[in-house]
């Protein structure tokens, strides 16, 4: 199981990123646990300068805007 964190204030883009992650994981057959992180201090500590940010298994893989679907699937597959 992959631990995925979505960093952001809870905006529409953050919700859309979470939906993308769930859909990509489902299509790949990968189990994910998604945690939303909205605390500004925790977001800064994670190194996210632009939201939404995404980390997979404690590795920051994306920050700012929605991720490219192909890249997202690649991150989840590895």
How would you explain this protein's 3D organization?
Disulfide bonds join 11-14. With 78 residues, the chain is α+β, with helices and mostly antiparallel strands. It has one domain: Glutaredoxin (3-Layer(aba) Sandwich). The chain has helices spanning 12-28, 40-45, 69-77, and strands at residues 2-7, 32-37, 53-56, 59-63. The protein has a four-stranded mixed beta sheet. Helix 1 packs across helix 3. The radius of gyration is 11 Å and the shape is globular.
Helical content (DSSP H or I, runs of 4+): 40-55%
The proportion of residues in beta strands is 25-35%
- Principal-axis shape: globular
Structural class: alpha+beta
Overall tally of domains: 1
Number of helices: 3
Q: What is the CATH C-level name?
A: Alpha Beta
Total strands: 4
Mean pLDDT rating: 96
Indicate the radius of gyration in whole angstroms.
Answer: 11 Å
Strand order of the largest sheet: 2-1-3-4
Following the backbone from N to C, one meets helices and strands in this order, namely EHEHEEH
Provide a concise account of the structure shown.
With 78 residues, the chain is α+β, with helices and mostly antiparallel strands. The protein is built from three helices and four strands, in the order E-H-E-H-E-E-H.
Could you list some keywords that capture this structure?
single chain, redox-active center, disulfide bond, alpha+beta, THIRX-like_proc, 78 residues, Glutaredoxin, 4 strands, 4-stranded mixed sheet, 3 helices
């Amino acid at each position: 199981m992959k631990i995925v964190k979505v960093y952001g204030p809870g905006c529409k883009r953050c919700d859309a990123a979470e939906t993308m992650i769930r859909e990509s994981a489902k299509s790949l057959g990968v189990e994910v646990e998604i945690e939303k992180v909205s605390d500004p201090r925790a977001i800064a500590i994670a190194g996210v300068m632009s939201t939404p940010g995404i980390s997979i298994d404690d590795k920051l893989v994306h920050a700012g805007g929605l991720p490219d679907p192909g890249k997202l699937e690649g991150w989840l597959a590895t």
